[in-house]
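About this split. The held-out portion is used to measure sequence recovery: a designer receives only the structure tokens and must propose an amino acid at every position. Recovery is the fraction of positions where the proposal matches the reference. Here is one held-out target exactly as it appears in the evaluation file.
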């Protein structure tokens, strides 16, 4: 049957991220650090309001850009949080930021166009570039440089085929955050070479050391930035599959046409949930922020007590990216050893790019008591004695 499958999909292997999650599911008495899905359910106040909305008929198609109330609330949110004025025709609701990224790549890439992806990176970036006919160009992020984007190497990566640069801060899988200086330097490069910035801004709540700064808020960047937003992590709403795109209206009109041939419109109940989440954010988000900051720092302290392991202080997201190089194991070997000997599942760093192989990723989507049990098991392994 392979003769009937598009060649662009035949060459795509299952990712290490998917393999890790699959292996974890099959294990008994498992403590699972692989999934970036919070163990905290969506706040009941959101659910109760949506339940009422659905009972009152919120079960239909909506405007293909998204319900007006939600777009108006997003406009108010960006004005309140970042002092940014965003017109309603520059906002489109999507079925997740991941779907939004796919739409963007379909819209901007012609065959052979290049997209620069700082790496280690979220695996779907490169796949989605490839699916849209583009070419992923990886820009290595180094721990010795605090995982900031090296501007000299960035400039050297640019060719006449470069169309865009993806940035993700706070960063999955690293847990790092780009500094204001880095964002300003990236902005200057984008303007110098007339490039787009694709900003994957889905962990904006979880910036622990400095307030989050949208790159689109930097002078001259709003017109060349396409922002992807989501409610999955910032509101513990992964299962609702709801996100949005912010971009110039000319982009939004193209995204709208693509989306109408994909899912047509995001589900109305999910859009209503996003609306209530935004309205309740000052009641809901502080607790999420404090909980995941506490978990991140607990894991950070326990990891740094393990022989041969080091990890940078958490700066953002709910991921940690420990360096395992001194153990002498590859990331796959290390993850396999943890799974078999301690019943603890992590994702090998190689899942996030070839330069991630001396790391593993932990998602601290487990409470502190469960993490304590995991690290107590790990400390008993012969590897750490």
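Reference sequence for scoring:
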């Amino acid at each position: 049957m392979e003769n009937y499958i598009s060649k662009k999909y035949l060459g795509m292997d299952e990712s290490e991220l998917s393999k890790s999650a699959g292996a974890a599911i099959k294990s008994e008495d498992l403590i699972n650090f692989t999934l970036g899905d919070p163990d905290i359910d969506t706040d009941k106040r959101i659910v109760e309001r949506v339940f009422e909305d659905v009972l009152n008929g919120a079960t239909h198609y909506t405007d293909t850009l998204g319900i007006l109330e939600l777009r108006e609330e997003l406009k108010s949110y960006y004005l309140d949080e970042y002092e940014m004025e965003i017109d309603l025709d520059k906002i489109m609701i999507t079925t997740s930021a991941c779907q939004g990224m796919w739409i963007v790549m379909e819209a901007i890439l012609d065959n052979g166009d290049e997209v620069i992806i700082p790496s280690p990176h979220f695996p779907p970036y490169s796949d989605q570039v490839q699916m849209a006919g583009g070419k992923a160009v990886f820009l290595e992020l180094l721990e010795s440089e605090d995982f900031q984007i090296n501007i000299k190497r960035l400039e050297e990566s640019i060719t006449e085929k470069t169309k865009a640069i993806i940035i993700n801060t706070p960063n999955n899988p690293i847990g790092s955050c780009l500094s204001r200086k880095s964002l300003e330097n990236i902005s200057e490069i984008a303007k110098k070479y007339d490039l787009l910035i694709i900003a994957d801004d889905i962990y904006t709540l979880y910036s622990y050391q400095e307030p989050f700064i949208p790159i689109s808020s930097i002078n001259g960047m709003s017109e060349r930035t396409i922002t992807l937003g989501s409610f999955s992590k910032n509101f513990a709403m992964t299962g609702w599959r709801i996100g949005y795109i912010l971009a110039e209206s000319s982009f939004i009109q193209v995204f709208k046409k693509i989306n109408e041939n994909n899912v047509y419109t995001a589900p109305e109940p999910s859009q209503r949930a996003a609306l209530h989440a935004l309205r309740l954010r000052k009641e809901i988000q502080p607790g999420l922020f404090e909980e995941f900051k506490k978990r991140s720092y607990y894991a950070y302290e326990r990891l740094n007590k393990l022989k041969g392991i080091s990890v940078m202080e958490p700066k953002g997201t709910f991921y940690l990216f420990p360096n395992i190089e001194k153990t002498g194991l590859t990331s796959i070997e290390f993850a396999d050893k943890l799974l078999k000997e301690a019943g603890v599942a992590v994702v090998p760093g190689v899942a996030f790019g070839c330069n991630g192989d001396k790391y593993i990723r932990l998602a601290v989507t487990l409470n502190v008591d469960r993490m304590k049990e995991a690290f107590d098991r790990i400390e008993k392994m012969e590897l750490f004695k």
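Annotator remark: The radius of gyration is 21 Å.
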